[in-house]
Design a protein that fits this description.
2 domains, DNA-binding
Length: about 650
DNA sequence: ACCGGCTGTCATTTC
DNA sequence: ACGAAATGACAGCCG
């Protein structure tokens, strides 16, 4: 086919081409910049796992990720997996918005535009992932076939990127009103010489322009290797299915969302870790705990006060007879009292003093003799009474009702002692232990160990004086049992056990001391096997208690984080839907303008017989470098559908 | 009496 | 092998 042109027509044609080529340059560069930015950012996200080629078809890296990470030495709790699955979840969510997959016509076109050589070598879904800036790499790839355009186009991209990067959505990237275009035309004319534009309009198909000497001259003057990348305008014009554009928008938004998702995950992870760390540090937790504990302690002390005020002298003696230096120190040591000020109010001490602690010395020996049998049974019994879970654990998995266990304490006490080995060794504990530990008991024990025993100060128990042990001696049980119970209700079960076994360390000390120190203590203090067992159990239980608290805190944090993520994803989905609608509107306007412009251009062109080119028979195509050519439509009816399927086939092949 | 939340504890697994 | 941590399950207490 040959087309004849007059000089004025040629000039007009070039002007039209100039204008249209700028429009396409804008579109291409915008799209290319979006795609390049997208690819660069996705690549950055995935760079840590560097699975090789990636592209705008980001599902491919995720599949590779899955294949790579599934069970290949990655711990299920690996944060990378969290990020990966969060990203994949986000991808699925974005997909669920109703948009088709990426290898649609427009996306194929965009990827096609981004890297012609990539497509030739790796296909639209692959590109070198090792480069930190794939967008620029694509430009370099283009330079391979059009090297003289590289600087100008590189500048274009560099100039366009910030514009696109300013707005979060695609609205800014998709605005193509004519006035803006004209302004940009003026701007870009400076950076994009008109010769290159003429070049861009280089009519590569010689058959089309063989008859025109000027065009031929221009063609030869600005001859360049024919671009292998030629995009049919109908590709763009056929973008009436804006879901394809939507997929692009979603893709760009997905990228940003992957960022946020990963950061969200990481922040969740960090929050979890930090919270765990805070708990591990212990100080913060103990501080936060203090208020509640003090509140509980006050309640308990109120109860204790009220009970003590009604207590019989026997109870007082029993309380005073507690063979613990901590209690003795309470009465005689002001410093200790000050240390305990947070836990026991002065009224308690006054009552204790009034109840005749002076007689403690006189009954000390008798008490020590009786403690051998009382401690092992009475205190263990107290433990059993106070904690039914303890019974279930020590006595066996099947835990009968609490009332039964309480009433049959005389029976299960031996079982429990046998299970734990406490009571038998308590019997063997001479007063030596008492002598030693009386001086070794740290004064802070009570204040430290009052916390977290809310379940042991049940009023029900305090209202049950019938829980005396039948094995106890008359004098001791009557005098000591109630009082010691009252006092020991304030202590944790492990604290009671420790006291019963004359362990000279507080539970907190046992739990918090380093392993080496703990082992030294176990080895160097001449503890009996029962004491060693108790020490280990106390340490284990204490650490497990903290671990359980941390675990629950983490669980709550995780739930909170997931709820926040759900809210964030819902907001993101709404935003994406809004942007999708906006993008569809924008692209509709752009498509309309382009169709109109195409008709304009074709109407101004003349074929060999001087007739204007029919838009039904010809179309405008734009190359990757912005060159616009006229091409006859081969299959005008099903051009778009055929192109679409072709692109898909190409994408699948590659 | 029932229920839900909190807590401690145990058993088990994992590191 | 041992200890620590994490966690599910269970039970008791409490409001």
């Amino acid at each position: 086919m040959s087309v004849s042109y007059t000089d004025s027509e040629v000039l007009r044609h070039f002007m039209v081409e100039l204008f249209t080529s700028f429009i396409f340059s804008l579109i291409f560069n915008s799209r290319k910049t979006v795609t390049a930015n997208l690819r660069r950012r996705v690549t950055n996200h995935l760079s840590e796992i560097n699975v090789g080629p990636s592209s705008a078809y980001i599902q491919t890296p995720f599949h590779i990720l899955r294949d790579t990470l599934d069970g290949n030495g990655v711990h299920p709790k690996c944060p990378e997996l969290d990020s990966f699955f969060a990203s994949r979840r986000l991808l699925d969510e974005v997909r669920s918005l109703g948009s088709p997959r990426f290898p649609t016509q427009l996306n194929a076109w965009l990827v096609h535009q981004v890297s012609a050589t990539d497509r030739a070598e790796h296909g639209p879904s692959t590109s070198d992932d090792t480069d930190s800036s794939p967008g620029l790499e694509d430009l370099r790839d283009e330079a391979g076939c059009d090297s003289e355009h590289l600087p100008a186009r590189g500048q274009e991209v560099e100039q366009t990127s910030p514009e696109l990067g300013q707005g979060p959505g695609g609205a800014e990237a998709c605005v193509f009103p004519q006035q803006v275009d004209e302004a940009k035309v003026k701007e870009e004319e400076e950076a994009f010489p008109i010769t290159q534009l003429a070049h861009s309009s280089m009519l590569e198909q010689e058959s089309l322009f063989d008859g025109n000497p000027i065009l031929s001259d221009l063609e030869h003057r600005y001859a360049s290797p024919p671009s292998s990348t030629v995009v049919d305008w109908s590709n763009l014009l056929s973008v009436t299915d804006f879901d394809e554009l939507d997929s692009l928008v979603n893709l760009s938004e997905l990228d940003a969302d992957i960022t946020s998702a990963i950061s969200q995950d990481v922040s969740l992870h960090d929050a979890t870790v930090s919270s765990a760390g805070a708990f591990g540090a212990g100080s913060g937790r103990s501080e936060s705990r203090t208020v509640a504990q003090q509140r509980r302690t006050l309640l308990r002390l109120e109860l204790l006060n009220s009970t003590l005020s009604d207590a019989s002298p026997g109870m007082a003696v029993g309380l005073a007879a507690l063979p613990f230096a901590s209690v003795c120190n309470l009465t005689g040591n002001a410093s200790s009292q000050s240390l305990l000020g947070g836990c026991l109010d002065e009224a308690v001490f006054d009552q204790i003093n009034q109840l005749g602690l002076e007689g403690l010395d006189s009954i000390d020996n008798q008490l020590m003799n009786s403690l051998g049998c009382v401690d092992s049974q009475g205190l263990e019994d107290l433990d059993s009474d106070s904690g039914l879970s303890l019974e279930s654990s020590y006595g066996g998995p099947a835990s009968p009702g609490s009332s039964e266990m309480s009433s049959s304490s005389s029976l299960y006490c031996e079982d429990e002692g046998g299970a734990t080995g406490y009571s038998s060794d308590v019997d063997s504990l001479p007063s030596k232990g008492m002598m030693d530990h009386t001086t070794v008991w740290p004064p802070v024990d009570l204040s430290e160990n009052v916390w977290h025993d809310h379940s042991y100060s049940s009023p029900a128990f305090l209202n049950k004086p019938s829980l005396k042990l039948p094995q106890k001696t008359e004098a001791f049980s009557d005098d000591d049992d109630d009082g010691s119970q009252l006092e020991e209700r304030e202590l944790s079960r492990d604290e009671l056990r420790a006291r019963a076994m004359y362990i000279p360390f507080s539970v907190l000390q046992i739990v918090n001391m380093p392993v080496e120190e703990f082992m030294e203590i176990l080895d160097g203090h001449g503890f009996t096997p029962a004491q060693v067992t108790l020490l280990r159990d106390i340490r284990r239980r204490g650490k497990n208690k903290l671990a359980a608290q941390n675990c629950r805190k983490r669980k709550l944090d995780a739930i909170t984080g997931l709820q926040e993520e759900v809210e964030r994803l819902q907001a993101q989905r709404d935003r994406l839907l809004r942007e999708k609608q906006l993008t569809a509107k924008t692209m509709g306007a752009v498509g309309h303008q382009i169709r109109q412009l195409t008709r304009d251009v074709l109407a101004r062109l003349r074929d060999g017989s001087g007739l204007p080119l029919s838009p039904e028979r010809f179309t405008l195509q734009c190359g990757a470098n912005g060159r616009v050519v006229i091409q006859p439509i081969r299959r005008p009816v099903s051009a778009s559908a055929g192109n679409k399927t072709d692109k898909r086939k190409k994408g699948k092949k590659q």
